[in-house]
Request: fold
Amino acid sequence: MGTPRVRSKTEYRGDQVMCPSNMAEHALSRARSSEAILNLPLHRIGKAPRLHPNTSAYDPWVQNWLTADRFKTYLRAAGNNTQRAFDLYQWNTAVNSALLHDFAHMEVALRNALHRELSTLTTPSLTWLAAPTALTLFPVAMTTNGKTGAAYDTNEWLRGRLQDSRNKFKCSQTAKLLSPMAEGRIVADLTFGVWVELLHPRFEPTLWTVALRNAVAPGVARQDVYARLRTLNDVRNRLAHHEPNLKNANKAHRDLFWLLSVLDRDIQAHVRTHSAVAGLLASRP
Reply:
């Protein structure tokens, strides 16, 4: 038996023989094609369907899908041009999806940063997520509703959200320490509104000054973080309910990346690299 021939000059691809130079050109061509597709705005990938010129916001299929009142928002923004209104609806949906992608990264970064700093307020035998500690950090604080005159506890909502999460994962309501797995699950389960509330002005002396200020870059004011988070919380709720964000998408995008910049510039750079929002905003119909 002779020595097997080593194919050093060519490579097989199916029943074709491709020279290394041709293989390189083929790979480069495919890479360019993939890059071109990835760089397309989400609502432009594929052929956008054109509507019949007589389509009305009151047509049954539009009513069943969007409702006339919902579609009117886009019609007004499109100068009553039905086709452009549908393009705006598709664009808004794509922007919302892209914002939620970036928002997810920011929310994870925020909650982990705040959790780390809040953990410094307790000893190794305690966790801020446990009921006894939560009552210390968020004590009963009665105040009066300025409109109704009714008295209420300003921290009851926060303690209630923590209790709901502990119940969800069957954690003891009397234990002072939780397992690392339980802590991680509770941190992930808490709503974005909880993390926003932790930066409320009433917590400046008890939480911000002694711990939470270390979650962001030096010199950043609590009120600047809180104001942006409150705005983004409202935007996030609109995104989750597929509401129009024709007017506030640009500001939400700026606020989100400002927050990432004060949390961690490396995270900000990573999210920006993979974000589709800027391209979509630039391609508004």
